[in-house]
Design brief:
Length: about 230
């Protein structure tokens, strides 16, 4: 329990004291509630484990199946909307933001939920689905959908999730947050490459470019009235 509190204080600059963390953080309460429900489940008191799990879900907004295995130092920030499935396994010092799902893609019994390595950070709204493995020290960007294995020390963005090679070594700070504002726009990069190719083909055939000039301004603002929202 002390390590859980320390994990929150290390990774949340808003945390003022250990007492505040222990009393006011629903993500921490969800982790503690799961440790109790998991112990009950593992000792054969499965109904009691499910009852505790259900009560924790109501109180914290975090749904963790009692059979899921969670390592020390898990930090669930903001808590609301987090779902962790029955056969999920989470390593040490993992950080999970709100709206994350570690879910299954099959109705068959057996291993059907993700295995998350140590020191992984999963951004808000991300979905990790199926019996995939997320390697140690990886970062999953906000709203990414991961449906295949992720090598260790990777960054994943997009739908479906695409692995981005790191341009610099990872930081030494445990639980370093995902800087989603600096993640590449994979769709935008692909469209820009296609546009450049079309322009090149136009020049080679006609000597001029006839593709409509639809692109954002230097400030990144799109203009026009024909965009469906």
């Amino acid at each position: 329990m002390r390590r859980d509190v320390a994990a929150v204080r290390e990774r949340d600059p808003a945390a003022q004291s250990a007492v505040e963390v222990a009393v006011c953080y629903p993500g921490l309460h969800a982790v503690w509630g799961h440790r109790l429900s998991h112990r009950l489940w593992s000792s054969g008191h499965r109904l009691a484990g499910r009852v505790v799990s259900a009560a924790v879900r109501v109180l914290t907004g975090v749904d963790i199946h009692p059979e899921a295995r969670i390592g020390p130092g898990l930090f669930i920030d903001h808590a609301t909307g987090v779902v962790i499935g029955q056969t999920a396994e989470i390593g040490a010092d993992v950080t999970i933001y709100q709206g994350v799902t570690l879910g299954g893609t099959s109705l068959e019994r057996g291993k059907r939920h993700p295995t998350v390595g140590d020191r992984v950070v999963i951004g808000a709204g991300a979905k990790v689905l199926g019996p995939v493995t997320v390697g140690d020290d990886s970062r999953i960007g906000a709203n990414a959908v991961v449906v295949r294995d992720v090598p260790r020390d990777s960054v994943v963005v997009g739908v479906p999730g695409q692995v981005i090679a790191r341009s610099h070594p990872k930081g030494e700070v445990v639980g370093r947050p995902v800087d989603d504002g600096r993640q590449p726009d994979l769709v935008g990069v692909s469209l820009a490459a296609l546009r450049e190719r079309v322009e090149e083909l136009e020049r080679s055939v006609t000597g001029a470019v006839t593709v409509p000039d639809i692109r954002p301004s230097a400030a990144g603002i799109w203009r026009g009235e024909d965009f469906s929202i």
